[in-house]
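[Q] Does anyone have a clean structure-token version of this?
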Amino acid sequence: MDAMVNETESEGSAGSERSVTAPVRVLLVDDEALMRAGLRLMIHGTHGIEVIGESADGSAALEQIGALDPDVVLMDIRMPRMTGLEALRSLREAGSDARVIMLTAFDTDEFLLEALRAGAVSFLLKDSPPQEVVQAVLDAAGDRPRFSPDVLTRLVRLASDGTQTPAGAVGTGGKRPEGQGSAAEADAEAPASSPAPSGITDREWEVGRLVAQGLANPEVGEALFMSVATVKTHLGRLYHKLQVTNRVQLAIRVLELGG
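[A] Here you go.
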């Protein structure tokens, strides 16, 4: 699976770079006991992560979150009794600041945009390797949202094709074609775009268009012959100019503007 995409471009992504002054306290929420056991084995005791509890559904998770006050919640998006999405909405309505990473499978697309709007900090595929799960937890604890390229592409597609969008954005077109693997292919097959909007340079717009196609920073750099650091600089400027806070919102805004 591709590397996770860090949404905060100015932050480093290596877990070793994070200054850990206290354990990252994590609650696991999934109706499958085997999944919870696997997650515990992956993350407990790694880079200062401590699993402090488990729940089998959203309703029980709300009680556990209230009692244990975890820093990060790894929560399945689809569960019996109360789904992860319903639990997330309840948490936000209650004013909880727990950072929720939604665990998702390929058959849960219909929930992704709603979870983003409800305040999920990240999405993690259930078949993610251990190092990606660990890094997602560390980034969530540091308020650094992350999306895998696969999930990002699906979010952009859903927002572009549907009527529901992340808060503050309305998608109106375009997606990265399924099965498209390389940055060069993406750049070659991308539809023609409108000129860069006023106040945005042509180079920034090129970067924004490739992000809207679901490319990660190294792929953008490869396509445009620039370093990853330069890609991050352009993205930081785009975030400011387009008044967005994460990669998904940026992608939707670029599509809205005709990218």
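[Q] Thanks! Anything notable?
[A] The chain has two domains: 5-9+21-147, 150-256.
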